[in-house]
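Provenance and format

Records in this collection were gathered into a single text stream. Each protein contributes a sequence line and a token line. The two records reproduced below are adjacent in the stream.
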Amino acid sequence: MSTQLAYYFAHLDDFPFPGWFDGLTRTWEPLEKASAFLDTLLVKPDVRAMHGEAKGEVHFHGNYYVGAGTVLYDDVTVIGPAYIGENCEIMPGALIRPGTILGNNCGVGHGSEVKHCVVMNGAKIASLAFAGDSVLGRSARLGSGVITANRKFDQSNATLRTDGGKMDLGASFFGCILGDYSRLGANAVAQPGTHIGPYTWVFPLTNVRGFIPRQKRVWSEEKIAMAENEIVELKP
């Protein structure tokens, strides 16, 4: 089990802000830094900068920055402070919430919600997904309908099981650490505090928690039941 950033992310040098990860060693530290960084970058100087293209009606609230080449489609909502890098594609109905930093060449699908996330270059979030309080590595993928659950039922701090017991991750809102090039398939769920190593694929409909090492394939073995059915014509 590892909470070292270097285990999950090997491309920190090409983030939109050079040196942004300098001095950060633990997986939770980018999330801790994001809000204060955006406050300094966007809120205090009152930045509201749209360098991309809006195709339809886009709703902005608070402070934001949208990079060149980025396209925001109809009914996208950006609630700042939020930073969206260059050449991103934000599909209709998506919601970008405060504390989010999207790197370059990222995608957010139709109806998806991204809240307080650090998303590295090339990462994609497909349609109808929720990414909350998470760090997504280079070219990582969240499939359609994926949920990165970000709070426990009892609202206590997220934890990560280790050989010595449970490690307190220091925040009651904590989603998923998803390493470079890893994937969560359609309708998968990552429980609060889940750490997934790079190049790991979590197959659709799989519920994961805790630490999942690098270069694994993860799925749930389920038995499908089948029985005879009567002929019923459904009403219009």
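Adjacent record:
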Amino acid sequence: MHVDLPLAESWTTREVVERWRALFGGTVLPQRYLREEGLLAVEQQQLEDLAEAWCERLTSVSWFMGCLNEHIARKANDEGDCTGHFWEGRFKSQTLLDDCSVWTILVSQFTTDA
């Protein structure tokens, strides 16, 4: 995965707000801004602060993965008619430090009864 930071750094406040709203919706302040309604100076500053934070999130691979995992977990919980943390108790995570470890796990998945 590649993030084009120079491109993201060239986004205007409007571009950041539009991108964020396309993904996550928004509150009244960004809506008013995009409709080009006059904002008070304090509102404009608040919007610019939000846009700065949103730009950081839009260019963060960690933020993207968190959003992706949340989406997957919600869908799986809906399909499985269950609640709680999707990843708890269903899957295990373990660091595999070398090729031998990877092969051991792969072979064990095909040789044991589930």
